[in-house]
Specification:
This protein has about 425 residues and is mostly helical. It contains 16 helices and 9 strands. Helix 2 runs parallel beside helix 5. The structure holds alpha-D-glucopyranose (GLC).
Length: about 425
Amino acid sequence: MDLDAAARDILRANDHGGYTVPNGRVYPFQWNWDSAFVALGFDAFDRDRAWREIETLFRAQWDDGFLPHIVFWKDDPGYFPGPSVWDTGKQPVTSGITQPPVAATSIRKLWESAKAAGEGERYRSRLEALFGKLLAWHRWFATYRDFEDRGIVVAMHPWETGRDNSPEWDAPGEPIDISNVGEYVRRDTSNLDSKMRPTKLEYDRYLALVQFGRATGWDHARIAAENPFRVADVGMSMILLRANRDLAALADELEKPADAAEIRQWIDRAERGIGWLWDEELGAWGSRDTLTGRYSGFVTSASFLSFYAGLSDEHRDAAISSHFDRIGSAVEFVMPSLDPDDPGFQMIRYWRGPVWAVVNYMIGTGLAEAGDGARAERVRNDTLELMRRNGFYEAYSPVDGTGSGGDDFSWTAAIWLAWNRSAH
Ligand code: GLC
């Protein structure tokens, strides 16, 4: 079977006209960081459509720069929690939380690819327009989500991290009051095996946080000050640092020195402050509860994103690399979303074991850039082999490669295309 063609078919089938749904059955809307990866896939065969994916996403940006995690372009009454639960009052209808800021990094890639194909001039005005929007979103992070000016991103909801039910959110989630959540019917467990999905307790907490945000009228300043869940997420922090480096490069390209200087201040801040997320006892990067200061204590796939963020430190890199090697010999396919030696490891439950192609893409990119060719190749080969054996699933068991979650998944197909491009 021609996997390139199969991957392109998935993107085309999930294309709802300017935006791509992650998977038609489980996720019938536009998701923020999914679109950033999907654009990389489209760029392998349809440049205009790749740019449009991100342009469409930014049509849902709020006036304060905030970019929502879901855009409900067309209603789908079967989905939960839908527009009426979020009740953000925006047009287009959106959720009230954000997601990892991958878009600037993707746009830089699209731009480099357009230039390399001799189409830079054609795309320059589209780059200009998107640059302003990306900058506004990153400013929003600096304004509302930067913990103690450390360049660290505070997540107000597990769904913001994109690693929805990582065990990193268990302890910080405990104080969330779920007594008023009320009755509701989940949609995810009617489409997928509940063994793969979050538990009822986790879901109650998710909804309590949505209700909290809604009660503030989605006032991000109040949420930043009062939300019952405020966790410094290692994944988002590394991704934002990386995205700021890419945005600064675009500012240079567009000859915007004042913007470049503003962005470089955020980068300097993060380089000085992000060490707060280094857990020396664990010898790994991890998330940390800003309300208690407690480390999560977990090695997750996000622990390996420091290379992608452009950080380098001999002692820390060596410690992280030894976790990589230990985990790499324990599982057939890296990088499990949770350390397989952790007692809570479950090979198919969301973000407690399975491998995500998009996270691997970021880990592998970072390792390659850091000059660690061997580990970078391991990540890339494992990821592509999972797809060759099982098709384009949402995620995969690191133990035996079984697909988990939805099939025909857009961002997985996109990573296949993005990662095979250079090989053609
Ligand atoms: C799940 C994932 C999240 C993703 C979404 C759509 O909620 O945890 O990261 O954006 O699905 O694919």
